[in-house]
């Protein structure tokens, strides 16, 4: 510490600014001061737009569904009712799936689970806006991509249970799915790593003169990782055909988005400094999510380079089964969130169009519930976590390399020998 | 057949493989137009175009991460980290991603790539142009680590690494890019052209990964070395007049333990040498393995000749670098024990 009696003592004393979320446990959340631009108010530029000209879009919020559930403004993708119904059903299915897997963890059938409650619109609608062979580099909260692309629920559950049906052979923590066939790159526990990887995949597609594009996913908290910067830089330099998505759900475990830098600028605004167009989009508005993803995909596919999209949403539940959010935020915050619930908003929209009703919704909910229960029954036939890890100990040593080196073969024999005793 | 130094041999390995396989892409800082600060990628952009060989931003994280994405797509990236001392910003991508993707996807995805990087000291490179971080990679399951010591091996191992289905960390001892260096820094450096291993075939050939080379046969003791230290060891052995067997490991993982075991069981004595610091260096693994496998054949404690457990100092280059003098001391000690 410096002596107070220095010649510079007449200067004002510095103090460290540590951002605090607006509400803590015990507070009544009040979002009336949060600026939510009207649906339909954001302009829709041409895909050849200069990054700098997207500043208002990066600061604002692209919204299509208004408070009455009507689609308004230039971003309305004018989707047909079948597409909307499919998205709605996928969202309902995912929420039920998440609830049942959460419960399975509480029942001791597996070690860990992570829900995406409140964020269903983003991944599911993104999948609808992309081509089937576009590649995603997801985080652990984009299970909606798999659901939307028809990945079997039983296989997802087998992975969660690390059971005999787990195609990752019990090696990965639950929810770290991988499916090349569904354009879903293997999930890593290390945050942010997949974001620049997506850029590399997109560069490869460009190198080979392909027409496929890549999507890199990251959360608000992980944008603070150096990988975010690397991904943005490479995407800009090589005009990579990629869509770079920041899912801003306001929370990184217990840290609010201000700790990641959101107090000073939106995440979408960061794009402009790299020379990449940035959009900030209502993440609970299926139509806005679809339109923005399609716009960015059109840009990428026509060699205009990458787009950064910040989906503004709210993590409605705990970070994971190992987290209790009442320790750091008010219990009623999700309910107070001004952008509402994505399922309820799309449901209201479809009902308004005369393409849906309460009865059909309830019927869909019941169908999805039955589908999830059936899948769970099938998955549990192949075992739950507490029964696993005994049968095929030799498999621990496989796939470290294409062929097992002698060093590992020796250890495998030792492990098998120990297991016998 | 041509006479090549190590740089030319590595360059040739790139050309030969890039001609055979259109999925190979080469990039790194200054690796494109300029051909690399050590000229290893010289002329590749001109021959193969900017889509196959290009300059990268100064971001080791980004270089490795994009290579992961490219390998996921189906390309074979051969990327350059300008100095091994600068590989650390890419370390998370290498350790958490590159090394583990085949395993964590049960083979659904693999990462065929080569991460090449000049390494090692003896060039007055100071703290950040001299390091030997190989043990940080041999410790990681899923990686192969290769270090050549001659132009012939450099080309053959590089082609093998590029064609390998698994990720290979390829450390190039920059001290011996232009000529073998035996640690006698006060004597003029010989060029590779005076060394038989500079006879390098123009076309395709491989030196298998995981196979050591006995570079000098001997009966009295076994020296385990790699990279520049192979030449230091050979010089020290000759000058000392000890009938030592010198083994160039060439590949640290997979390791040719059979060749090592056979030799130590024959000689009964072993000296392990490397430039990297001693504490938890790769030498510790070698000592353990020899102890485990050759205990009843050992006639003396195993000696280690390594860099000191300090950062690499600039002015004290020759007090730090484990040269022939320090080597000879160890050889004599292990013979006296």
What does it look like?
- Chain B: It comes from Sphingomonas sabuli.
- Chain B: This is 3-methyl-2-oxobutanoate dehydrogenase (2-methylpropanoyl-transferring).
- Chain B: It is an enzyme of class 1 (oxidoreductase).
- Chain B: Keywords: Oxidoreductase.
- The complex is a heterodimer of chains A (421) and B (337).
- Chain A has 421 residues and is α/β, with parallel strands linked by helices.
- Chain A has two domains: 51-319 and 338-388, 3-Layer(aba) Sandwich (Rossmann fold), CATH 3.40.50.970; 390-421, no CATH class.
- In chain A, 38% of the residues lie in helices and 7% in strands.
- Chain A has 13 helices and seven strands.
- Chain A has helices at 55-59, 81-106, 120-129, 143-148, 153-161, 194-207, 226-237, 267-274, 286-301, 333-336, 342-352, 358-381, 406-420, and strands at 135-137, 214-219, 242-248, 251-252, 255-256, 278-282, 307-312.
- The model of chain A has no long low-confidence stretch (mean pLDDT 96).
- Chain B has two domains: 2-200, Thiamin diphosphate (ThDP)-binding fold, Pyr/PP domains (Rossmann fold, 3-Layer(aba) Sandwich); 213-336, Rossmann fold (3-Layer(aba) Sandwich).
- Chain B has twelve helices and 14 strands.
- In chain B, the strands form three sheets. A seven-stranded mixed beta sheet of chain B has the order 3-2-4-5-7-6-12, with helices on both faces.
- The mean pLDDT of chain B is 98.
- At the A-B interface, helix 6 and helix 7 of A face helix 3, helix 4 and helix 5 of B.
């Amino acid at each position: 510490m410096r002596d107070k009696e220095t010649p510079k003592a007449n200067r004002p004393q510095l103090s460290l600014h540590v951002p605090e979320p607006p509400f803590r446990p015990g507070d009544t959340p009040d979002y009336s001061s949060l600026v939510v631009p009207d649906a339909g108010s954001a302009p829709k530029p041409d895909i050849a737009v200069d990054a700098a000209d997207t500043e208002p879009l990066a600061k604002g919020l692209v919204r299509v569904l208004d408070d009455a559930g009507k689609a308004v403004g230039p971003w309305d993708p004018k989707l047909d009712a079948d597409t909307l119904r499919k998205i709605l059903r996928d969202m309902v299915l995912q929420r039920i799936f998440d609830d049942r897997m959460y419960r399975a963890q509480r029942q001791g059938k597996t070690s860990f689970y992570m829900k995406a409650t409140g964020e269903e619109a983003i991944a599911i609608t993104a999948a609808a806006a992309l081509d089937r062979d576009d590649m995603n580099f997801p985080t652990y909260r984009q299970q909606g991509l798999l659901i939307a692309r028809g990945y079997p629920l039983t296989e997802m559950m087998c992975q969660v249970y690390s059971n005999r049906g787990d195609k990752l052979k019990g090696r990965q923590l639950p929810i770290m799915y991988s499916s090349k066939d569904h354009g879903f790159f293997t999930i890593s526990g290390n945050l942010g790593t997949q974001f620049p990887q997506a850029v590399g995949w997109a560069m490869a597609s460009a190198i080979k003169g392909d027409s496929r594009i890549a999507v890199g996913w990251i959360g608000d908290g992980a944008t603070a990782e150096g990988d975010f910067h690397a991904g943005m830089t490479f995407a800009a330099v090589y005009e990579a055909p990629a869509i770079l998505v920041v899912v801003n759900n306001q929370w990184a475990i217990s840290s609010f988005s201000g700790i990641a830098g959101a107090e000073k600028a939106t995440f979408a605004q960061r794009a402009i400094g790299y020379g990449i167009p940035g959009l900030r989009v209502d993440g609970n508005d299926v139509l806005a999510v679809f339109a923005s993803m399609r716009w960015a995909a059109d840009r990428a596919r026509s060699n205009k380079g990458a787009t950064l999209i910040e989906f503004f949403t709210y993590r409605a539940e705990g970070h994971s089964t190992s987290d209790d959010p009442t320790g750091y935020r008010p219990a009623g915050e999700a309910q107070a969130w001004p952008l509402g619930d994505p399922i309820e908003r799309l449901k209201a929209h479809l009902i308004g169009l005369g393409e849906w009703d309460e009865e059909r919704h309830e019927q869909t909910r019941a169908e999805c519930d039955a589908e999830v229960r059936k899948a769970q029954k099938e998955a549990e036939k192949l075992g739950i976590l507490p029964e696993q890890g005994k049968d095929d100990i030799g498999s621990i040593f496989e796939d470290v390399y294409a062929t097992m080196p002698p060093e590992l073969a020796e250890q495998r024999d030792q492990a098998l020998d120990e297991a016998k005793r | 057949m041509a006479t090549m130094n190590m740089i030319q041999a590595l360059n040739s390995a790139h050309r030969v493989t890039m001609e055979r396989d259109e999925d190979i892409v080469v990039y790194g800082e200054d690796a494109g137009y300029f051909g690399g600060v050590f000229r290893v990628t010289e002329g590749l952009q001109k021959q193969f175009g900017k889509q196959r060989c290009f300059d990268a931003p100064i971001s080791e994280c980004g270089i490795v991460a994009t290579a992961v994405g490219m390998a996921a797509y189906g390309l074979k990236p051969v990327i350059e980290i300008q100095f091994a001392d600068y590989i650390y910003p890419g370390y998370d991508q290498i350790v958490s991603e590159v090394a583990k993707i085949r395993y964590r996807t049960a083979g659904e995805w693999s990462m065929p790539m080569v991460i090449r990087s000049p390494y090692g000291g003896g060039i007055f490179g100071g703290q950040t142009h001299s390091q030997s971080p190989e043990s940080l990679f041999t410790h990681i399951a899923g990686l192969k680590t290769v270090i050549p010591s001659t132009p012939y091996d450099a080309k053959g191992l590089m082609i093998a690494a590029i064609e390998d289905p698994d990720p290979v960390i390829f450390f190039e001892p920059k001290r011996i890019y232009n000529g073998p260096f035996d640690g006698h820094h006060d004597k003029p450096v010989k060029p590779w052209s005076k060394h038989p291993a500079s006879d390098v075939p123009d076309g395709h050939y491989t030196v298998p990964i995981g196979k050591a080379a006995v570079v000098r046969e001997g009966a009295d003791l076994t020296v385990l070395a790699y990279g520049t230290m192979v030449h230091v060891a050979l010089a020290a052995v000759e000058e000392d007049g000890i009938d030592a067997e010198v083994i160039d490991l060439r590949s640290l993982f997979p390791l040719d333990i059979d060749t090592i075991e056979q030799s130590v069981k024959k000689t009964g004595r072993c000296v392990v040498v490397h430039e990297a610091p001693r504490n938890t260096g790769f030498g510790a693994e070698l000592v353990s393995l020899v102890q485990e496998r050759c205990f009843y054949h050992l006639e003396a404690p195993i000696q280690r000749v390594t860099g000191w457990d300090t950062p690499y100092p600039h002015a004290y280059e020759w007090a730090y670098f484990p040269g022939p003098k320090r080597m000879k001391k160890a050889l004599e000690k292990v013979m006296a024990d």
